[in-house]
Amino acid sequence: MPDHLTVVDHPLVQHKLSIMREVATPTATFRQLLREISQLLTFEVTRDLALTTRDIETPLCQMQAPTLAGRDPALISILRAGNGFLDGMLELIPSARVGFVGLQRDEETLQPMQYYFKVPEHLDERAVIVVDPMLATGNSSAAAIDLLKQKGARNIRLMCLVAAPEGVAHLGQKHPDVPITTAALDDRLNDQGYIVPGLGDAGDRMFGTK
Ligand code: URA
User: How far is the CA of 8 from the centre of ligand 1 (A)?
Assistant: First the structure.
């Protein structure tokens, strides 16, 4: 297992993911499970957020209570499937700032080109959590992280649901400083760029577009 990769092997995560993988699982169930699993993955991906303390008064005494340090984290969704993670994550981190990166492949150069980019200010002072459920080739995640680094982001991590070994290797090579948290590391990519066994097109499954 590459050391920049964490596979969350918690039984609840694995159980929910198995239901999501099933072709017969309806859109509403898929969406609900995605929301739940996004929270369990967020728990893991935020494990090392910096803490400070502040003075509070309990009914019994004063104490120095732990509290998140610094600016609110930024959640960056890679369109469109990344949006499926946001609702659940924002329930856990309601003050998080949210950004969006839209990329599509330039048919001449075959490189990912941005068609939308809107991110919070002060990225250099935030923990930046990039969300993209399916880490397939890793091209779009790597391109999105390039753009975020150009905006000053330094403390970046990627949260996904299912990763392919090809995507993990590509991202590790392009951005070795970016840890990846996923619920599963699958076998491979097929000729169409789908993760196998995977769960199909995550966007279609969560938005019901097929
Ligand atoms: N994107 C998806 O939605 N699914 C895959 O299997 C690969 C990329």
Answer: 19
Architecture of domain 5-47+74-201: 3-Layer(aba) Sandwich (3.40)
> Domain map of the chain by residue range?
5-47+74-201
Q: What is the pLDDT of residue 157?
A: 98
- According to the model, what pLDDT value does residue 3 have? 81
List, in sequence order, every residue forming a beta bridge with 162; answer none if it has no partner. 134, 184
Identity of the residue numbered 45? V
Condensed to tens digits (0 to 9), the pLDDT of residues 140-155 reads 999 999 999 999 999 9
Tell the residue nearest (CA) to atom 3 of ligand 1. 201
Residues with Cβ within 8 Å of residue 107, at least 6 apart in sequence: none
Distance 185 CA to ligand 1 centre (A): 13
Are 23 and 201 in contact by the 8 Å Cβ rule? The answer is no
